[in-house]
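Posted in: Protein Modeling Q&A

I'm a second-year student putting together a small comparison for a lab meeting, and my supervisor asked me to include a predicted structure for DUF5658 domain-containing protein. I've never done this before, so apologies if this is the wrong subforum. The sequence is pasted below exactly as I got it from our records. If anyone can share the structure token output, I'd also love a short note on what stands out.
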Amino acid sequence: MRFWRNTFAGPLLFFLLALVLDTAVTALGTDYFSAIEREGNPIVRWLWEIFGEARILLPLLWAGVISGAAYFLLKRVKPFLGVWLLYGIGVGHFLGFLSWTPLQTFVYSGNSSSVFYNLGAQVIISAVLGFLFAKIQLRISEKI
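Accepted answer (user: helix_wrangler)
Welcome! Here is the predicted structure, written out as tokens:
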């Protein structure tokens, strides 16, 4: 029960697990990040081109930036915003993980013209589910 009192631990673990799953399946799907054209997210493809061989470090950098931003929001602004950020981006990475699995038709339709539409839908789904998860967790932590 003590775990749920720490409003940062649960969402952080979820975010990191989803990031690891997304990164691992993306690495396999792109021949360990060498086939950039197989990645559906144009921003990630652009970052891979910029970082070159150092692109393997991007997930670590991303984890640090998001964790730091969430911690700042949690401690300095409003706890709900930090929890929402972690859950929202965690759901986005989990959907990214699903996009490489046989469940990909749920996440992506497969044609390149729909990538931006699907990424937009993924962001909306992530924000809504992140909001709901954050609300539920904060309610549980208040009652414990």
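A couple of things worth pointing out for your meeting: The chain has seven helices and no strands. The chain has a mean pLDDT of 78.
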